[in-house]
Amino acid sequence: MMTRSRCIPLVLVAVLALAAPVLAQGTYTPDEEGWVPLFNGENLDGWRLRHDGDHGWTVEDGILTNTPPSIDLVSTLPLEDIELHVEFRVPQGGNSGVYLQGRYEIQVGDSFGHELNAGSGGALYSKIVPSENANKPAGEWQTYDIQFRAPRVDRDGAPIRPAYIRVVQNDILIIDSEFEGVTGGAIDDRYGVPAGLMLQGDHSGVEYRDVRYRPLQWDWAAEEEFTSLFDGESLAGWKVSTETGHGSGGAWDVVDGVITGTQDTPGNGGILITDEDYGDYEVRFEMNPDWNIDSGFFLRCTDDGRCYQVTVDYRPDGEVGTIYGEGIGAWLQPNPEWYRYYKPHDWNDCRVIISGEAPRIQVWLNSHKIIDFVDTEVRLPAEEGIAVQVHGGGDWDGKVTRFRNIRVRPLGEDEIAH
Fold this sequence. Notes:
Helices cover 3% and strands 42% of the residues. By secondary structure, it is mainly β.
C-alpha cells in the first residue's frame, strides 16, 4: 500500500531547527533499505531541547538515556508520513512517550500486566486504547514499529483528512486507526506542518536506542477503492423498507452530514436500505446512538429485513458491535466485553468484513477486533443490501440513532473466505 518517498529538503530542516536550542546538527544518510537514523548512537547531534534549561539526556554505548529532572527532546529533522522504528526501556513506574511530529503521543510506560486504558503503554495517549497488552516487564527492551500518516489540511489550514497511525509493539499489532486532534503535551497544534519526533523527558527516566525512520508515500488509490454509500446531504441511493416486522419504516433524515433515524410514532421502526446489493465486502462507518435505544447495521439485508446484524443495542442489557441473525437465528456471536472499547456519547468507528456464502464476519470497534464469526450454514443470498435500523417496539421518546461516513470496498478474490 505504501512506497518510499523523498526526504525533506535540507533548507527546511535548517529553518525549523532554529525554533529551540539545538544541541548539534545531524547528518541523515539512508541505508540500503531506506532507513534513516534519527539517533546516531554516539551523541545528540540532530536533536534540540523543547525549551531552554538543564536536561538529563546522555549517550553511552549506543543508548540514549534520560535522567530527571529533564526536558523533552525533539529531532531537528521535520517529518511527514513515516515508518518509525524505536527501541526503549522503562524503569519500574516509568513514564515517557514518543510524539510523532511532536503532537501525537504513543505512550511509553510501565504497563506490563496492568488493565489497559488510554494512558497505558502503547496507547495513542488519551485517544486510543491498545487492542491488547503487549508491554514487557519494566527493565526489558521493547520495540515500537509505527506507520504514521499526518493529517491533511486545505490551503487555509482546515483539516480535510484525519491522521492515521498503525502501531506494532513487540511484534503485536495494537493500534490501526484514523484519529483527529493532537494528544496531551503536544508541542503545538499546527496540523499539516512537518515537525520533528519528540521523546518525552520531563516525566521519568527512560532509555532509547535504534531510533530510525523512512519516508512513506501513501497509495491513495487503495483508499479510493472505498465507495461512499452516503453523500452527506441526502438519502439518494437509499430507500425505506416497509416490509419488515419492526413497523412501517420509522422517520429518517439527514442532519449536518449525518443519517438520523427515530420512531415516527411510538413503537414504529423500520430499516433504511441501499438500492444496490453487495456480496463480499469491507464496510466502514461511524455511529453515535442516543442512550437506551436499540438500533443496528445490517449486512446482506433483504427487503423484509432478514440479515446479519451488527448490533447497535445501546441499552443497559444491550451489546454494540456483536452479531445477531435478524430473522435467521437470533444471537450468533455475542461479546459482553464490547463496552471496554465503546466511547459513550461520541462517534464510534466500526469496520466490518463479510465474505463467503456461509460467511466469515469480522468486526472492529474503534480499531479493536471484537468479533471473528464463521457461520456453518448458508442463511441468506450471497448478495443483498446494506441497511441501518430503527428498532420497533417500546417508545424512543424522540431519541435518535446516527450514522455517517458509510463506505464500502469489494473484496479481492484472495480476501474471500471459502
